[in-house]
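Box 3.1 A note on notation
Throughout this textbook, protein chains are presented in two layers. The first layer is the amino acid sequence; the second is a token string describing backbone geometry. Keep the layers aligned when reading.
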Amino acid sequence: MPIEVNCPECKALLRLADEHAGRQARCPNCSAVFTATANSLQDSPGSDPPASDPKTASDSAASTPPSPSSGGPTPSSGGPAGSSGSPPSGSTRSSTHVDASNPYAPTFSETFDSRAGNLESRRISLDAVYSNAWRIFKDQWVMACTAIVIVGAINFGMNMAQNVLIQIAASMVNEQAVVIGLQFLIGAVRWVLQLWLQIGQTMVMLDIARGRDINLAKLFGGGPYLLNTVLAVLLVGVVVGAIALVMVGIPVGVVGLAMQDAEAAGITAVVAVLIAITPIIIVSLMFSQIQLLIIDRGVGAVESLRESYAITNGNKLTLFVIGILLAAIGMGAAIVGLLALCVGIIPAMIGVSAFGSLVFVISYLFMTGQQVSIPRSFAAEQPNFRPSVT
């Protein structure tokens, strides 16, 4: 029978299985760690949730969670993002059931309304992102890889169609300017279609990461978010282009005109590009979450840039290292595939792409204080495990 306990810090009313009495628990509201002693417990009058709608046992880190002295998340750190930590400011949380035998197995017992209020930035760690991504990938690799294969096959078909259309246009039109214009138009259409598929892929990966029912039809459901995503990507492109113009184009042009020396202009271009790489990478990381925010929060293009700037504050270095590691994993998979007489290179790259998509989605969920799935098979082996951002 579930029991109730009040957090000694914030007085939040929590519900957990009665066998956890006397053990440590972590409050999902304030992240305070306390012992659920007998004098702080109130027997629940029944199995139905009380009128005050306390947090369920899945919100409480019962049965000896990481304590502050053991290097785990401390109350001051905000606690695990989206699991045992507090919900983002202004967001809402709903509970659906209590599993008295194993409060950690069902990861569907708590959901956040990510579209309510403002999101708070949470610091993420490399280990937390990769370990949770790997657990989820091992459990749902078939669906994740299937989504990648479908999107990849359609993109391949579009690339082939683009090449055919360009060749047909070149054979039918003699004006080079017209051919170039048609090439640009066809390329733009293909880019928009690829972005539409990418949105659908992200929607599926979000469902996988959250432990929701997976519907591959969502791969083609990115229409409502396409316009804002296109506008946001173009805005980021303008910012990156402005940086490149100021730091590369103008210096190279000035040196070329002043010295009339192609070699000097080339050296200047190399140096300017090396200098411009750092701010371009920073800006790219700063606005790397725009698509996820548009999908998950339903915000507009400009608002997605503002919120991406906010949630990546303090996380840009971690995101950069995550990207570097994914690139290294991809290179390793390609080398292994080549050593296997090229037979395994395509499956390896599909797996890396699926895993990488989950990594970036989980990074976003952790940065915004949202919950990730705990696979049931893993929960059965590790009943006291809770995903942590730290």
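The radius of gyration is 25 Å. The mean pLDDT is 76.
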